[in-house]
C-alpha cells in the first residue's frame, strides 16, 4: 500500500455499527465518513466520491444490489464491499455479479475488513492508472495507411502477431522510423487492447531506476524507497509492455527480463514473493543486436527470446511514396491543433520534401511540418516555410515520385494509359548524375569514374540536365 490511506464511506442503517467502524477505521488512519442509508443513496455516494464504499445489503428504502447497479450506471469510481447480517451464498454471488469487490458478514472481523479495504483501494488505483496510460497513448497514436509494399507487409505481420499468443516481438530500424507506432498497432489490434500499453526507454534511466521502473520495489529496499511501488510489468498485466532501446539495458536487468519472458514471473526489488503476470513484451532497437551479442554486450539467450517475431522497419528515404501521404496528414493535424487555415502543400514544397534524405525519418518529417504550420500563416505551405537544411537547387526533386512509380510498375505492371518514357528515363539519368556528383564533391573526373563514363560524356549529360556545380 502506498501513499495516503483511502477515503471510506460507510452506508448502514445501524448507528451503533457505524460508530464502531468509524472509530476503528479512523484509528487505523483511514479517512472515514458515514451515511444512514436513507434517501437517494447512489446520488450521495457519487457526490462524496469515496475510494471504498462499505454498503449494507439491506437499507431502509432500497437494497445494496440496487445501489450497486445505480453506481455502475453512473460510472462511479469506487470499489464496494458489501456488508450483511446473514451468511447467504446466493446473495453474495448476486453482489459480486453486480460489481461488488468483496462481501463480508456481521459481526465483522475488523482486521480482515481493513485488509479488504486496502486491497479494494489498491485495485481502484491500479485501474485508474491503467485508464490514464490508455488515454495518453490513444491520443498519441493515429495511423496512416502506407503505400509502400514493405510497410504493407509489416502491417500484415503486425495483424497476424496481434491475433496470436506470441509474447515477444523485436522491432529494429533507424531512429524515427515508427517502431513505437508499430508496437502500439499490434497492441490495439489484439485481445489485449482494453488493457494498458506501457512504455519505458531503457536508455533514459540509470540501472537502479530502470530496475525499479520495470519490476517495482518494496518499502525500504533501497535508500529512497519510502513506500512500495508497483512496476510497469505489474501495471501492464494483461496488456503490452514496450521496451524502447532495449539494447541499452544493463546485463543484470537482462537476466531478470529473461526470467520474465520464460516464466512470466518476477519479484519486486527487495521482495520475496513471486508475482505472476501475462504481458506481451515488444522491444525496439536502432542498434545491431546480433553484433552486440558477438561483442558480449547483450545476452544471446535474451536476444533470441526477444526476437520470436522480428520486424525491421525501412527508413523513410526507402519509402518515398509515403512522404506525400504523411506530410499531408501532419499538415492537417497541426493546422487543427494550431487553429491555422493551412490546407495544402505547394508543388515546389512537395518536391523539396521528396528530395530531402530525411536522416531523422518520420519523426523529423513530423517536426518539420509542425514547425512550418506553427510559424507561418496562409493556406498553402511553400518550400521556404519548410526550412530544410542540407538541400540545394540540385536536389533531385522528382526522385521520390519516380521511385514510387517504378515500384508500382514492378508490382502491377504498366498503368493502363502507359508512362512517359523520356520523362522517366530522364529522371533516372538525372538522379544518377546528381548522386555521383554529390558523392564526389562535384569532382567531374571522380563522378565520371563512378558512372563508368568518360568526362566528356558526363559534361554533355550535365549540360542536358542543366546541372552546374553549386556556388561556393
Detailed description of the structure:
The chain is α/β, with parallel strands linked by helices. The chain has 20 helices and 16 strands. The protein has helices at residues 15-27, 41-48, 64-73, 89-97, 110-140, 149-162, 179-188, 207-215, 232-235, 251-263, 289-294, 300-306, 323-337, 347-355, 361-375, 383-386, 399-412, 421-439, 444-451, 455-464, and strands at residues 7-11, 31-35, 52-56, 79-84, 102-105, 168-172, 197-201, 216-217, 229-230, 240-244, 265-266, 275-276, 280-285, 309-312, 344-345, 380-381. The strands form 5 sheets. A 5-stranded parallel beta sheet has the order 2-1-3-4-5, sandwiched between helices. The chain has a 5-stranded parallel beta sheet with strand order 7-10-13-6-14, with helices on both faces. The chain has a two-stranded antiparallel sheet with strand order 8-9. A hairpin with an 8-residue loop joins strand 11 (265-266) and strand 12. Helix 6 (149-162) packs across helix 7 (179-188), helix 10 crosses helix 12 (300-306) and helix 19 (444-451) crosses helix 20 (455-464). The model is unreliable at 137-141 and 391-401 (pLDDT under 50).
Task: Summarize, please.
Helices cover 48% and strands 13% of the residues. The protein has 20 helices and 16 strands.
Comma- or semicolon-separated keywords:
alpha/beta, 5-stranded parallel β-sheet, about 50% helix, about 475 residues
Amino acid at each position: 500500500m502506498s501513499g495516503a490511506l483511502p477515503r471510506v464511506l460507510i452506508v448502514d442503517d445501524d448507528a451503533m455499527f457505524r460508530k464502531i467502524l468509524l472509530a476503528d477505521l479512523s484509528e487505523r488512519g483511514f479517512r472515514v465518513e458515514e451515511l444512514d442509508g436513507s434517501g437517494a443513496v447512489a446520488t450521495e455516494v457519487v457526490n462524496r466520491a469515496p475510494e471504498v464504499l462499505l454498503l449494507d445489503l439491506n437499507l431502509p428504502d432500497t437494497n445494496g444490489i440496487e445501489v450497486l447497479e445505480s453506481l455502475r450506471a453512473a460510472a462511479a469510481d469506487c470499489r464496494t464491499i458489501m456488508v450483511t447480517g446473514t451468511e447467504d451464498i446466493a446473495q453474495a454471488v448476486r453482489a459480486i455479479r453486480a460489481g461488488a469487490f468483496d462481501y463480508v458478514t456481521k459481526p465483522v472481523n475488523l482486521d480482515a475488513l481493513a485488509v479488504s479495504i486496502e486491497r479494494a483501494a489498491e485495485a481502484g488505483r491500479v485501474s485508474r492508472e491503467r485508464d490514464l496510460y490508455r488515454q495518453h497513448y490513444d491520443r498519441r497514436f493515429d495511423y496512416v495507411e502506407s503505400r509502400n509494399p514493405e510497410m504493407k507487409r509489416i502491417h500484415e505481420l503486425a495483424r497476424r502477431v496481434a491475433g496470436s499468443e506470441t509474447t515477444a516481438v523485436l522491432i529494429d530500424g533507424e531512429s524515427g522510423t515508427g517502431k513505437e507506432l508499430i508496437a502500439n498497432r499490434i497492441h490495439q489490434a489484439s485481445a489485449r487492447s482494453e488493457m494498458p500499453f506501457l512504455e519505458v526507454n531503457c536508455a533514459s534511466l540509470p540501472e537502479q531506476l530502470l530496475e525499479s521502473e520495470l519490476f517495482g520495489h518494496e518499502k525500504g529496499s533501497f535508500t529512497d524507497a519510502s513506500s512500495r511501488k508497483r512496476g510497469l510489468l505489474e501495471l501492464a498485466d494483461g496488456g503490452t509492455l514496450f521496451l524502447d532501446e532495449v539494447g541499452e539495458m544493463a546485463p543484470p536487468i537482462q537476466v531478470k527480463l529473461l526470467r520474465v519472458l520464460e516464466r512470466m514471473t518476477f519479484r519486486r526489488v527487495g521482495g520475496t514473493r513471486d508475482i505472476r503476470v501475462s504481458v506481451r513484451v515488444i522491444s525496439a532497437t536502432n542498434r545491431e543486436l546480433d553484433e552486440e551479442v558477438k561483442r558480449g554486450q547483450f545476452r544471446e539467450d535474451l536476444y533470441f527470446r526477444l526476437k520470436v517475431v522480428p520486424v525491421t522497419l525501412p527508413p523513410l528515404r526507402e519509402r518515398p511514396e509515403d512522404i506525400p501521404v504523411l506530410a499531408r496528414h501532419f499538415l492537417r493535424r497541426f493546422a487543427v491543433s494550431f487553429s491555422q487555415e493551412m490546407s495544402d502543400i505547394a508543388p515546389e514544397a512537395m518536391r523539396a520534401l521528396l528530395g530531402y534524405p530525411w536522416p531523422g525519418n518520420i519523426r523529423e518529417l513530423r517536426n518539420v511540418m509542425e514547425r512550418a504550420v506553427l510559424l507561418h500563416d496562409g493556406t498553402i505551405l511553400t518550400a521556404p516555410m519548410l526550412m530544410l537544411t542540407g538541400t540545394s537547387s540540385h536536389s533531385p526533386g522528382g526522385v521520390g515520385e519516380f521511385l514510387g512509380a517504378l515500384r508500382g510498375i514492378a508490382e502491377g505492371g504498366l498503368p493502363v494509359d502507359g508512362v512517359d518514357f523520356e520523362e522517366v528515363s530522364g529522371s533516372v539519368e538525372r538522379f544518377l548524375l546528381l548522386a555521383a556528383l554529390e558523392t564526389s564533391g562535384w569532382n567531374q573526373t571522380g563522378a565520371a569514374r563512378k558512372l563508368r563514363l568518360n568526362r566528356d560524356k558526363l559534361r554533355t549529360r550535365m549540360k542536358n540536365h542543366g546541372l552546374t556545380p553549386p556556388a561556393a
